[in-house]
Amino acid sequence: MNRLLIDGVGKVFNGDNTREVTALKDVQLSAGSGEFICIIGPTGCGKTTLLRLIAGLESPTSGTIRLDDQPIDGLNKSCTLVFQQFSLFPWLSVLGNIAFALDSKGVPKKEQKREALDLLRLVGLADAAGSKPHELSGGMQQRVSIARALAYDPEILLMDEPFGALDERTRQKLQDVLLDLWRKKRKTILFVTHNIDEAIYLADRIIIMAIEPGRIVNNLSVDLPRPRRRLSAEFTELHVRIRDLLEIPE
Ligand SMILES: Nc1ncnc2c1ncn2[C@@H]1O[C@H](COP(=O)(O)OP(=O)(O)OP(=O)(O)O)[C@@H](O)[C@H]1O
Ligand SMILES: [Mg+2]
């Protein structure tokens, strides 16, 4: 189960000193259990707002968001957000960061270390368990963030440009780490990116958004078999098509 249904959702921000902003207008989107969806669109088109609405950090001004037919009311405990900025606790070790999440999930103390190490192994970082976050590279910290997100055992993983700050090679490696985790854990993933190739490499489906007002303008299935070859003709063809839909000039 765990079907996410976003039905006619709008979000208008109306700040004290700012003009009214329609961050999202009439958004219609559903995500099946275990589906990998990428969201791409120009800056300010409401991608982060959409993830925050799904997480229950904001509420929509119109429409509804339901998970398995239950409207989301307040914080959505079925979701975990992963941001571009590494948001690890600097005073805790890598292992401690993961154990913290396990603890808040109610995992008994004596099982936390073993489970944390299992998760670190999944992201290829068991050797860094005793390190502090600042001793790790950005790519390694983002692996820890992903392991910590999984420690919360969410049904839906919401990822907001998680690899945006990384170099291309590290980014590609982490894409493979994420696909591997997704295959093993079968979470539903909503992944925001500005990188067209990243979306094509990862997604079952790509949602394309536009601005003013923020809205969904296209919904493309990616039917290429995995592992996908970034330089293949089909990949490149899809890249060009998405560039066109995003109205990016040559
Ligand atoms: N708390 C807020 N108060 C007022 N306006 C907001 C708030 N949050 C977002 N907005 C506005 O809503 C619009 C959508 O913002 P959002 O951050 O969702 O865009 P985005 O697609 O994530 O952009 P980016 O690609 O730059 O991250 C923007 O115009 C932004 O200024
Ligand atoms: Mg954003």
Label the overall shape. Answer: globular
- Helical content stands at 25-40%
Structural class comes to: alpha/beta
Q: What does the largest sheet look like?
A: 6 strands, mixed
Oligomer: single chain
Low-confidence stretches: none
Beta-strand segment tally: 10
Bound molecules: adenosine-5'-triphosphate, magnesium ion
What would you note in describing this structure?
- The structure is a single chain.
- The protein is an alpha/beta fold.
- The chain has a domain at 88-152.
- Helices cover 34% and strands 24% of the residues.
- The protein has helices at 47-55, 94-104, 109-122, 138-151, 168-185, 196-202, 233-245; strands at residues 4-13, 21-31, 36-40, 62-67, 70-71, 79-82, 156-160, 188-192, 205-210, 215-221.
- The protein has a 6-stranded mixed beta sheet with strand order 6-7-8-3-9-10, sandwiched between helices. Strands 2-1-4-5 form a 4-stranded antiparallel beta sheet, with helices on one face.
- The longest helix is centred in the C-terminal third of the chain and has 18 residues, at 168-185.
- The N and C termini lie far apart (42 Å).
- The mean pLDDT is 94.
- The structure holds adenosine-5'-triphosphate (ATP) and magnesium ion.
- Magnesium ion (MG) is lined by residues 47-48, 160.
